[in-house]
Amino acid sequence: MRSLLALLLWLLTTALLAVSIPALWTQHHVVSVDGYSDLAAGAARNPALQQPMAAELTEQVVNATGASGVQATLIGAAANSYTGSSVFPGQFAAVNRVAHRWLFTNDAQGRWEVDLSPMLADNSIRQTLDGFGVQAPTSLQVPVTENESGGLRPGQLRPVAVWGPWASVGAAVLTVVFALLTLTASRRRGKMIAALGVSGLLVGAAGWAGIEIGRGYVDDALSRTTGNIHAIADVMVDHAVASMHMWLNLTLTVGGGLVIIGVIVSLLSGLGRSRTEEVPATRKR
Q1: Which of 24, 126, 161, 285 has the fewest CB atoms in 10 Å of its CB?
Q2: Calpha distance 101→20 (Å, rounded)
Q3: What is the value of pTM for the model shown?
Q4: What is the DSSP string of 179-245?
Q5: Which letter, b or e, does each residue of 159-171 get, where b requires 16 or more Cβ atoms within 10 Å of its Cβ?
Q6: Cα 32 from Cα 30, distance rounded (Å)
Q7: pLDDT tens-digit profile of 124-146?
Q8: Which residue spans within the chain are E strands per DSSP?
Q9: Using the 8-state DSSP alphabet, how is residue 31 labeled?
């Protein structure tokens, strides 16, 4: 009966771990505005994102100011210089804060757009525009989705922002509690520690497989974005996937470590029992 209880608790612990790892990652890197901004800043250091961002800035400024020919070429060069600078990741993160607010709060209205005009305050772009006597636009709204709604609406994910922290922390706490209960219910602690390590290995491997499956759905969602925005979003998704892989690799590492610890504990326990059995036998002789 005790073994059956331990098995049931182990299964529940494994299921909770499978929920808590993605929940914690999502809360930390997507739902949290600070975490999402950090994720965006990290992606902005990738040249694969900097190039389409420079192209988007150039296109928007040229369209807004009517620049052409040499002017457009120099504006493009200035935009490339700006996106390759150390200032760009922080400002890109600030722009993404606005995009995040549109989805996760009730403060925004209308179409999902981001304002790129703060980026025009950079010296490399400002000096180029001033050199041609071109006035930088005070607002540079760029639509994120191709159509009016893109299947999304302002504040659509606000419930996630409200309940996400509670759900992720709750899942993590329950995972720890059930892991301790599993160890308590087990007669052989070493084997159960190894079994909990196997849980980590299973969850880590399943996570890798789940990411590969889920990437298709993400690509479908990205089809709602347009042009350079699509390329930028694609790089951000790749950066997010790399972050998820890091979390899963850590889960696999911890799981493997627990398996090793469990085996060692089992061996030591076995040696201890053997010596305990040998002592009475020696005394009888």
Answers
A1: 285
A2: 25
A3: 0.83
A4: HHHHHHH-S-HHHHHHHHHHHHHHHHHHHHHHHHHHHHHHHHHHTTB-HHHHHHHHHHHHHHHHHHH
A5: ebbeebeebbeeb
A6: 6
A7: 777 777 776 666 677 777 776 65
A8: 113-115, 141-143
A9: I
